[in-house]
Amino acid sequence: MTVYSESVTLFLLCTVIMMCAKIIMSFSKRNIYKFPPGPTPLPIIGNLHIMDLYRPDYTFMELAKKYGTFFTFHFGPVKAVVLVGYEANKEALVKSNYDFGERGVIRITEDFQHNHGVFFSTGEGWKMTRRFTLSILRDLGMGKSPIEGRIIEELQYLNEFIKSHNGQPFEKKVLYSGPPNITFWILFGRRFDYDNPTFQKMVTIIDDLVVLTGSPPIKFYNVFGILKYFLKAPHTVVKKIEQLNEILRVLYKEAREAKCDESFRTYGEAFIHKAEREKITDEKEKIFTEENLLACTFDLMLGGTETTATTLQWGILLMMKYPNIQKRVQDEIKNVIGLDRPPRWEDQKILPYCLAVAHEIQRFGNIIPFLPHATPTDVYFRGYFIPKGTMVVPLITSILYDEKEWETPWEFNPNHFLDADGNFLKRDSFYAFSRGRRVCAGESLARMELFIFFTGMLQKFTFTPPPGVDRDDLNLTADSFFTLRPKSYKVCATPLQ
User: Fold this and answer.
1) H/E element, 154
2) How far, in Å, CA of 321 to CA of 325, rounded?
3) In angstroms, rounded to a whole number, what is the distance separating the alpha carbons of residues 255 and 270?
4) pLDDT at 283 over 60
5) What does pTM read for this prediction?
């Protein structure tokens, strides 16, 4: 046997030994993992055959009755664990926040975010981007008087837009007009008229993406990646993102050209300044890129536009449905701050019922039932050993509707947030913005926007169903997209005297 033959034989032998060792180690390690119980999966589809495609959160809450508040569920070939109820989620998201703090993979967002941005990214890049984003938002006055002034100003534009309908019925999408401009001011340093073509196009694209990414084809694609070659929807989503990015590049180019000093007035300017002016390491160079700027912009637009605007749409629908609650809100406004000066953020301290109603709208609306998390390392939890990279479903619906935490969870009841004396009652089980490492980055801004917009609209108008529509017929069933939206409705706004 030649030396060459011996070398080849030795190489093949080592390769076989290494492969066998890996297989043995894989099976050995697999045996030490212990998942909680759950429904028996079928080949290929796992447990998808028992899942309500439109409201999987309802499926999980039903399964918890049999398997407990921590159980296993198979999304096709992906083995996940589900957390149901306040206690289980608090234990995981707050007390064990690192163990459950990674973002779970969502295939469709990976197609266009590529692990960039602040919502859907993971790892060191996410940490640096989130830290930078929180710092800049604070510098720009998030949750403070500079932003408050912008919200109050935008409230006047929104109220004028509502008033222009002269008491005639208008679509709920009118209520979508105000919140985007707060986000656009933070990003670009400007507001847009509601009929501005650029404004309309950006809002329309965001709306299309919310609907598309929550559609059944995309939900199946998120589980079975091979469907990308057979479905149109994933390609449509990426195309919509490309259209949005074209607009954003123009807006950021204009902002770059208008900038004349070293300071920054907007998130976009701060990001560009960070990329261009600072001596950066190789690691940072991978973070502060145009691709990441566009991804962060999309995330902030989605979070700052869709969630707040949709919550306001839920709020007005609920005021039509429960006119007694609407009247009590208006009575408090009249008696405390009057009908002339606009509400301010500090008024939450003297308008407890308004604040309670705003919180109950968020609880009842349950805008985002869950976003997947993942375990960054092997995790011990409640006697089980979960491997690194396991998808985790922290079910927000089950917290906001936990029958152990809320007196009437399936009813709209502002008393959930009031004590016996009518003072605002802070509830630890209020997880509308999630908790832990993945808590909403814009929570303080969203709270301020919702309170001022909602109170400011009720200060000027009484909202009623169109003629011929009985309030008892108003549908509180959600349309399930990426967010849970109220079904299409029309509303009449009568000036408050």
Assistant:
1) helix 145-163
2) 9
3) 11
4) no
5) 0.90
Number of Cβ atoms within 10 Å of the Cβ of 139: 11
Residue whose pair of structure tokens reads 């801004």 in the numeric block: 445
Single-letter amino acid, residue 134: L
Closest CA to 49 of 87, 31, 75: 75
276 Cβ partners below 8 Å, 6+ apart? Answer: none
Distance CA 322, CA 346 (A): 26
Other CB atoms within a 10 A radius of the CB of residue 363 amount to 22
Residue 3, number of CB atoms within 10 A of its CB: 7
Q: Is 81 exposed, middle or buried (0-12, 13-18, 19+ CB in 10 A)?
A: buried
Cβ atoms 140, 454 nearer than 8 A: no
Are 57 and 395 in contact by the 8 Å Cβ rule? The answer is yes
Residue found under tokens 């919200």: 151
Q: What is the pLDDT of residues 202-235, one digit of tens each?
A: 999 999 999 999 999 999 999 999 999 999 999 9
Distance CA 54, CA 218 (A): 12
Q: What CA–CA distance (Å, rounded) separates 48 from 63?
A: 13
Are 360 and 418 spatial neighbours (Cβ–Cβ below 8 Å)?
no
Sign of the CA dihedral with 314 first, then 315, 320, and 322 last: positive
Strand ranges, E, within 150-288: 170-171
DSSP per-residue codes, 400-453: HT-TTT-SSTTS--GGGGB-TTS-B---TT--TT--GGGS-TTHHHHHHHHHHH
> Element (H or E) spanning 88, and its range?
helix 86-89
Radius of gyration of the chain (CA): 25
